[in-house]
Amino acid sequence: MKQKPLRLAGALGYESADKRIYILRLVGVAGSISEAARAAGVSYKAAWQAVDTLGNLAGTALVESTVGGAGGGGARLTEAGRQLLLAAAEVAHAREQVLARLARAGGGVIQVGGVAALGLRTSMRNQLPCTVKSLKA
Q1: Residue 133 lies in a domain
Q2: Other CB atoms within 10 Å distance of the CB of residue 75
Q3: 3-state SS, residue 18
Q4: How much is the pLDDT for 6?
Q5: Smallest Cα–Cα separation from 49: which of 75, 23, 26, 68?
Q6: Torsion angle, CA of 57/87/83/21, rounded to 10 degrees?
Q7: What is the tally of structural domains in the chain?
Q8: For residue 98, is it within any domain?
Q9: pLDDT number for residue 9
Q10: Which domain holds residue 33?
């Protein structure tokens, strides 16, 4: 029986994190959560939750919102939001390089150091492999 090709990118489960980052990037471009939601094809609530979830994971506000008036409200990225987008771009680039290397290897098993562990993480704060040296009680 012919085996289906291995889809590493799908199996590593980055779609939800990538979608949140995409929405955050759209907020920065559009200057509005509602405009970002429309551009991403999601509801305002889903876009707001994506930004809120990223902010909670990052431990700081990523977007500053202004209350609407005659011209409506708006939203702009904080410095932390801009830094997160830069870091996310670097992580995405590194992930693409690893996936390309795996594809060149024919989908076989190769050692990728701790990078393979990235696929098991679900939040931005856990994206880099590390070793815990000590714990204090």
Answers
A1: no
A2: 22
A3: helix
A4: 57
A5: 23
A6: -60
A7: 1
A8: yes
A9: 61
A10: 8-126
- How far apart CA 35 and CA 55 sit, in angstroms, is 19
SS3 94: helix
Examine residue 137 and state whether it is found in any structural domain, yes or no: no
CA 91 – CA 97 distance, rounded (Å): 10
Q: Residue 119's pLDDT is what?
A: 46
Q: Does residue 36 contact residue 26 with C-beta atoms inside 8 Å?
A: yes
pLDDT value at residue 110: 45
Helices 33-40/15-30 angle, 10° precision: 130
Nearest to 99 by CA among 120, 121, 115, 78: 115
Q: Are 99 and 9 in contact (CB under 8 A)?
A: yes
How many angstroms separate the CA atoms of 83 and 21, rounded?
A: 12
Question: Is residue 76 helix, strand or coil?
Answer: strand
Please indicate, yes or no, if residue 136 is contained in any of the structural domains. no
* Spans of the chain below 50 pLDDT: 109-122, 124
CATH of the domain at 119: 1.10.10.10
CA distances in angstroms from 23 to 67, 80, 99, 125, listed in the order given: 20, 15, 24, 18
Which residues, including other chains, have CB under 8 Å from residue 70's CB and lie 6 or more apart?
A: none
